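Pasting as-is:
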Amino acid sequence: MAIGTLVVGLVSACTGGSGAGANTGNDKPVPGGTLNVGLTIDITSLDPYDGMGDTTSLVLANINAQLFKYVDNKMVPALGEGVTRSADGKTATIPLRKGAKFSDGTPITPEDVVFSLQQAKAGANYGSLYKEIIASEKASGDQVVLTLARPTLNLEAMLSIPQASIIPANFKGKSKSEFFQQPVGAGPYLFSSRQPGVSVQLKKNPNYWDAGRPYLDTLDFKVFNSNNALTSAYQAKSIQAIPFVPTVSVPSLTGAKIVNTAGAATEMFFINGSKGPLSDLKVRQAISTAIDRETIVKSLRGPGDKPTETYVPASVLGSARPAPIKRGDIGAAKQLLAASSYKDGATLKVIYPTGDDTLANTVQAMQAELTKIGIKLDLQAVDQGVWVNDVLAGKYELAYQNISAHGTTADAAFQGFIATKAFGGGWTMDVAKTALAEYQNAKSTGDQAAALDKFQNWISTELPVIPTVSLSPSLALSGTVAGYQGLETVTQQALPFDGLWLTGS
């Protein structure tokens, strides 16, 4: 689960469009320099196994590396050199890249990989997912041998996401908490410093496995307390990159190149159905029916975003077929509410994270629509950390945000739903667990899609969550940034900046 976004007239407001423009594949990389990256939400952790949030995943994607990575719409080797499967598909042998090192110069060994996969299996949010897939792991010479619980079509994809990062065995002799205060990874950049709520600074990893990269000397992630402050910093040229671009900021980003990255997230209402009005299916149906998803996307969102009633993000393998989108129907919604136990309406508290005006504008638009049917929303913006804690603890009625897949597999989105017990909402996990097992046992993407459809049909029927917008987050880059070709094929949550450089112009 990750917590993120984006624009009518976007290309006309900025030069370049989706990665087009003066920067071509023939440009020669320029080494050196600092790329200042603007964020409105701080990271929550430096621990890739337990950290949550889009910005957290983005920062950690630049500190850490995995056995595989997704590039140009295909899975390719990274720290692993490939995978050989046994005839029954239950044993996977992965040789390690020769000469690969951590950022401190120590060699990466099979023992490090075994230890890292054990950390992945112990992860608070996705650990059970790896436990269900990998029965055991062992070092053998210069390779790692995995015994799988079942043949796993998505193994390489599962070993490519941030939750499967490779770190030194035994935390280099430190305690876990001590290690993650100054983590050592194998990504393009190494951790330098952090001021919570202010900045995270990364330096070039001289031991990065992909020779010649990264080109930049420093990545400086700066945290701003508002979109206005973020925009002002871009205009003042003190930042050159803005991930998850807030829609309201785009018209002010003069000269920006906009890269629409892969659609790996779905925005939605999370619902606590354990008691009160939201325990009544008719109330949930009335809310979903009243939301005018098409108008919200057309008026508030960008060209990469789409209205959706589908939980699973669009970029995952075997994506579920989209649920039909119906324009907001106030009349039908009123009828549903009249047939509920709350025919006179209800007032519901909605929490959503601060730092994203697009998110705020969206919940305000839905607030206006729902008022027409007698549902009043008490909107409360809270700190990102508070939002996460309250949702996981079930201390909410409605909570608005998005869930991210992190990569090309739906396993993480499934497991986020299951591991958090449907975000503290009191929902049964039976259908989700069955669909996940079928997805993992799939022999083809068609079988995967069928499993996702089973899950999505349950979502559409029971509405434990109410999806609204399928997100394709935008990355804004100033005219001085080059080397961004191919980024549109990668999810922004796992987007390494190893291929970017500064032109100096």
